[in-house]
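Problem 12. The chain below contains 303 residues. Write out its predicted structure in token notation.
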Amino acid sequence: MHHFTLHTSKTIRDITIPKHEDQSLWGAWAPELAMEHDFLLHGLLGISALHLALCATDPQERQHRTVTAIQHHDRGLALFRPRLGRITAANNDAVFAMFCLVVFHAFGIQRSGDAPVERLRQVLTLLRGSMAIAKGDYERMRRSRWSALRPPLPFGLALRLPDEMEDALSALQRGVGRTTSSSAVDAGTAEDETVYARSIEALRENLLVAHLFPFTAPALMLFPMGSPDAYWDLLRAGRPLALAIIANYSVILHRQRVNIWMGDWGKVVVEAVGQALPQEWRECIAWATREIAEHNASPQARQ
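Solution.
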């Protein structure tokens, strides 16, 4: 808990809370909530242990800390699940904090291994599920101190992204028609075309927020939350345009790579997509590939 208060909380704060908002939420208020809710206490201890594991240079220490993290995380989840059907004014703030910790745990525990695109799909699917449940009591959350996680979002404004981002989105939009072409391999349906169009629009909104409000929770969440359920099925099936879309989203993760929870997620996903895509689809990830190449010398992660 001492490590969480001094160190881990800062890594979570840096990627979720704008600098002009209350900076004590994770370092002071979350531990106070944890003293009243055992599931959150185990969540904090687990994420702190996982942070220590990610920072460890000794393999044995890393393994020991990871096992401890999983034990606390599993125990916290066992206590947490029964609360999901009984979210009240008394536990709402702790429940929302636990949702956030579950997502950070997923980002950290899935950091290494094969099939990075599938691992990221699983993490973002978990984020979608967690936030969808939390969204059910959105008004209460909006009136709580957790409202600091939401900067003023520029919805409804005719704002233009930087040219390179607009070009990337245009390339994706050109790919939509190609997915239903009779000459395309694994040609999709008209419904797929609608799914892709909605997903690209969700990506546009996410890129805009990430451009205006980097290192905030919406900068990570808008595309996963705003894209249709069917998109994630297309991604799981390895459809080229679905892969290209997730590669462009991953640039957002790459730009936040100084944070230990993001690490090299963006880089490995873009590279994996680049290896999987047929040549005729490479235009759709040209911007993402350039971003990774230009910033390949990753700065030291904030630990």
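Discussion. The chain has a mean pLDDT of 89. Students who got a different answer should revisit the alignment rule from Section 12.3.
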